[in-house]
Design a protein that fits this description.
The structure holds 2 protein chains of 2 kinds. Chain A is α+β, with helices and mostly antiparallel strands. Chain A contains 9 helices and 20 strands. The radius of gyration of chain A is 37 Å and the shape is elongated. The chains are: A alpha+beta, B mainly alpha.
């Protein structure tokens, strides 16, 4: 047990380190900042795995050793427990030298008295052995303590199985879906990193989700109130299954795949035409910069880019979207943008560039590389308006839509993990709050009746046992009187 | 009543509770030192007045915000201190009939409340969507109930360490002729008489201010043994909530990590008590490490470490 305890404390220490050093996937921005400000320290941290403590080899080593040591502890205990279950309580002598001892004089003869004592003990849920020819009983109670303790400890192995199986065969990623569009659950359709488990066999579910609309509501203070994606779920064959409302804390599920509300943004529909022929048409997903201190994201405009590589020279247009026109007006008048809580006469400013898009370089779809480009036009575009860029090129902003960001994941181990949690609690309670106690009763003839000698002790929670012992003794006394009276 | 009236009632009741506890604390310490029964009555009376006002403050807060008042650190602190005092009255004064620890427990409540009102106060506001779940109520209330029990156990553990040290010194200074066992039934079996201890006051052993070390140890253990499964339950319900709010049941977010660390340390304490050589003083030290971890989980994670629980300021 001591080894396991030391390993458990080591695990806690490692977790402390993990909570103080920024972790991959939790605080990526701070890791980047550290590489910039303290490159040497950051590299040392990276080498020893401090940026990913919970995935590092030494963390794995500690909890593996912990489980091994735990198993080494539990196996013999479990074997002894099972053996104990089968063995009946063992008779004892010299009851009067036990921690608790009492004598009860009863009118019945020894055999009759012991029979009644047996019933009393059975009624109190003791395991009773005897009388085996001689008028003595051995009884015990409280196997739940050791049993609960074993269940509690073994449950951690159940937990491990649930975690490994669930994560290993599952996946988790994010889907960006514009209102009115249908998204299919497949490897290629995820946005950003898709985490797939180690034993994942590329068995994506193929279920579909058609987003009808998304709604973000805010209180007048700018505090978010609710985010709802109204959608239709379709199975892999494209047959509709059900209409759902996905909101924070209320994920939707189909075929083991769960959809969680994660975020949202704006996607203006932008149509670019050359001489009346559309060369780009559709919703464009806009992103937002990280707001500076004391500025709410609601005060910031949204940025997106339309690239037209087929034109010669190539054209790229950078848009800045204000979903609420008053946000932009407030910025122009007072130098401080008003929080934009919803759509209100949306407006976009744009800058059009021509030249070389340098599409051969790896770049972000939402960024425009203007090194080899020249700005040839700027302007403002309200919803429903069209701007002329010259050379027969026009850009139209027919409508503003929203997109929703959903976390999509599958974890088949969830129910195992939940089961482990329930076992942990179910085991913990008897392990902490019950006690193992033993009782013996021997009847000896005295005068016309008999005397019951009762001895016993508890291994834990001794003060409680004192009361229990007194109760047992008085019940023994009462039962003998009842019988004689009738 | 209007929202504003409820909010004002809440802050006024907070002030009454604060000063009632302060009075109760002073009276309790006076009783501890001089053992005048009327002073104890005053202490209990003040504590009860404080408790009622405290409850009123919590209810007023809930009415003003139109929800169960468990949405931010100020509200957590309000409930935590309430439960610590309530648990003290019920279990220590009530069940165990120990009357001398009130001053220490009330100090803890007073400090918690002062920190809450000075550094954590925010107006009663509705909740952001991520917090809007019935799991939140189950998770947060079990976390606070267990925190208050673990904190109460830890305060008593500090007193145990002080008392145990004193008993050890007294024991060491008793001349062997007196038997060396007088007043020592409660000393842990591993104590050793140190030669460097100061000489004893001769004559009968002076009665200590606090209950015996054994009593304190037992009380502390009971509180922690009571709080630990509830903490476990709180972590499990937190994981269930996290699964529906953040799409994963465990993500090593700082608050999750620290609740795990606290759990591990208190689990260590419970095991240590059952291990020979670790009973008594060493186990108590483990409990204090657990207390420190509890405070980090409760305050530091929200105030200084960035994570998903940062909203709960």
């Amino acid at each position: 047990m001591r080894t396991a305890l030391v390993l458990l404390l080591l695990l806690a220490l490692a977790a402390v380190a993990g909570s103080l050093v920024p972790q991959v996937g939790v605080a990526d921005a701070r890791i980047v900042a550290m590489f910039r400000d303290h490159p040497l320290r950051a590299r040392v941290y990276e080498q020893i795995g401090l940026f990913d403590v919970y995935g590092s080899w030494w963390f794995t080593l500690v909890y593996t050793l912990l489980l091994v040591s735990l198993a080494a502890c539990l196996l013999p205990r479990t074997r002894a427990f099972v053996r104990n279950l089968r063995i009946r309580p063992v008779p004892a002598r010299e009851l009067d030298s036990m921690r608790h001892y009492a004598e009860v004089a009863v009118p019945a003869d020894p055999d009759g008295a012991i029979g009644r004592a047996r019933r009393v003990l059975r009624r109190r849920l003791f395991r009773v052995n005897g009388p085996n020819g001689v008028p003595t009983l051995a009884a015990d109670k409280g196997l739940a303590r050791e049993g609960g303790s074993l269940v509690f400890h073994w449950a951690f192995f159940v937990l491990l199985i649930g975690v490994v199986w669930g994560k290993g065969t599952g996946f988790s990623g994010q889907a960006v879906i514009v209102e009115g569009e249908t998204w299919t659950e497949a490897h290629a359709n995820y946005d950003g990193t898709l985490r797939e488990g180690r034993f994942f066999g590329e068995d994506h579910a193929g279920v579909q989700l058609r987003v009808e609309d998304f709604q973000a509501t805010y209180r007048t203070t700018g505090q978010p109130q609710d985010f709802v994606t109204r959608a239709e779920l379709l199975d892999a064959d494209g047959d509709p299954v059900e209409e759902v409302e996905i909101r924070v804390n209320h994920p939707a599920e189909l075929g083991g795949v769960k959809f969680y509300q994660f975020g949202y943004g704006w996607a203006p529909v932008i149509r670019v035409e050359q001489d009346g022929v559309p060369i780009a048409d559709g919703p464009v997903v806009c992103q937002q910069d990280v707001p500076p201190e004391d500025v709410s994201p609601l005060q910031l405009p949204w940025n997106c880019v339309v690239k037209l590589p087929t034109l010669d020279p190539q054209v790229g247009i950078r848009f800045e979207l204000w979903p609420d026109r008053r946000g932009l007006l407030a910025l122009l008048e007072t130098g401080r943008a008003m929080p934009m809580l919803g759509q209100y006469a949306p407006v976009m400013t744009f800058e059009a560039f021509e030249g070389d898009l340098r599409a051969e370089l790896v770049q972000d779809a939402s960024a425009l590389d203007t090194v080899a480009m020249r700005r040839f036009e700027t302007g403002v575009l309200g919803a429903g308006e069209t701007a002329d860029l010259g050379d027969g090129l026009t850009v139209t902003f027919p409508e503003l839509r929203q997109y929703t960001v959903l976390t999509v994941s599958r974890d088949r181990g969830l129910w195992i993990v939940l089961l482990a949690g329930i076992l942990i609690l179910l085991g913990l309670l008897p392990a902490m709050y019950t006690s193992k106690r033993k009782l013996w009763v021997a009847a000896e003839p005295r005068g016309t009746g008999a005397v019951l000698k009762v001895g016993g002790f508890a291994l834990q929670r001794r003060s409680q046992f004192e009361e229990e012992f007194d109760k047992v003794v008085s019940e023994l006394r009462r039962s003998s009187e009842e019988k004689v009276g009738t | 009543m209007s929202t504003g009236t409820w909010a004002r009632l809440s802050t006024d009741a907070f002030t009454v509770a604060f000063f009632a506890y302060l009075a109760g604390m002073l009276a309790s310490f006076h009783y501890l030192a001089f053992r005048r029964k009327p002073v104890w009555v005053v202490a209990i009376g003040a504590t009860c007045v404080g408790l009622v006002a405290h409850l009123l403050s919590i209810v007023g807060r809930g009415a003003a915000a139109g929800r169960i008042p468990l949405g931010n650190m100020y509200e957590y602190s309000l409930l935590l201190s309430f439960l610590v005092v309530l648990a003290y009255l019920l279990f220590v004064e009530g069940a165990a009939k120990v009357r001398t620890l009130g001053g220490f427990v009330l100090s803890f409540a007073v400090i918690t409340m002062a920190v809450a009102v000075l550094f954590l106060y925010v107006g009663p506001e509705p909740l952001i969507p991520a917090l809007n779940s019935y799991w939140r109520e189950i998770h947060v209330s079990s976390m606070i109930v267990s925190s208050s029990l673990l904190a109460l156990g830890s305060v008593i553990t500090i007193l145990y360490l002080a008392k145990e040290r004193r008993e050890r010194r007294l024991a060491a200074s008793i001349p062997p002729i007196m038997g060396g066992s007088v007043g020592l039934e409660d000393a842990p079996p591993h104590f050793e008489a140190g030669a460097d201890e100061p000489a004893a006051p001769s004559g009968p052993i002076r009665r200590g201010l606090l209950p015996s070390a054994a009593t304190l140890d037992r009380l502390a253990y009971r509180m922690i043994a009571f709080g630990f499964p509830i903490w476990t339950f709180g972590i499990i319900t937190g994981a269930i909530w996290a699964e529906s709010a953040w799409s994963r049941y465990w993500g090593w977010d700082p608050k999750e990590t620290w609740s795990f660390i606290t759990w591990v340390v208190f689990a260590g304490y419970l095991h240590a008590r059952a291990t020979s050589g670790w009973k008594g003083r060493r186990a108590a030290v483990v409990a204090l490490v657990g207390f420190a971890s509890l405070l980090v989980t409760y305050y530091a994670v929200n105030l200084w470490i960035v994570g998903l629980h940062s909203y709960a300021k």
